From TrEMBL:
SUPFAM superfamilies tied to this protein: NTF2-like
DUF4440 domain ranges (all copies): 10-106
InterPro entries assigned: DUF4440 (IPR027843), NTF2-like_dom_sf (IPR032710)
Source organism of the structure: Methylobacterium nonmethylotrophicum
Pfam families listed in its UniProt record: DUF4440 (PF14534)
UniProt name for this protein: DUF4440 domain-containing protein
Length: 125
C-alpha cells in the first residue's frame, strides 16, 4: 500500500460508518483509547464505534510510516478531528497487516491526547 493510500485508509477509520470500520478493523486488534474501558479488543472497539457519532473532519499531520517487514505497516501521526461543535486532538499510532493482496486490517491502534501539564508543587520546607 503506497503512502497516500495509507493516509486515506487511516482517515476513513475516523470518518467512515460502523460497517466500514467493521470491514477494516481485525477482531484480534488491540486498542488503547483515552476513555473507559481504555484498553479494548477489536470486537469491543467495533461495537463502541457502532454507538458513537463519527467524526465529520479529520486533519492528520506529522505523519510517519514504517514498513518493518513485508505485509506490515506501522504509522504514527498527530490527529485533529471535529464533529458538530466538538473538537478532539491526539497523537496516534496504528499497525496494519496484509491478509491478502490489497486486503489490509488494523491490528493495533492507540490515541494519546495532549498531556496537560500541572504546576509544580513546592516542597514544604
Amino acid at each position: 500500500m503506497d503512502d497516500d493510500r495509507v493516509w486515506s485508509f487511516e482517515k476513513s477509520l475516523w470518518t467512515g460508518d460502523a460497517d466500514h470500520y467493521r470491514d477494516l478493523v481485525d477482531d484480534a486488534c488491540l486498542m488503547v483509547l483515552p476513555q473507559p474501558p481504555f484498553v479494548m479488543s477489536g470486537k469491543q472497539a467495533i461495537e463502541a464505534v457502532a454507538h458513537t457519532p463519527r467524526w465529520s473532519d479529520i486533519a492528520i499531520s506529522q505523519e510517519q510510516i514504517a514498513r518493518p517487514q513485508e505485509g506490515l505497516i506501522v504509522i504514527a501521526y498527530h490527529a485533529k478531528a471535529s464533529r458538530g461543535g466538538e473538537a478532539y486532538e491526539a497523537r496516534c499510532t496504528s499497525t496494519y497487516r496484509r491478509l491478502a493482496h490489497d486486503t489490509w486490517r488494523v491490528v493495533q491502534h492507540q490515541q494519546t491526547p495532549p498531556i496537560v501539564s500541572r504546576p509544580a508543587v513546592e516542597a514544604a520546607g
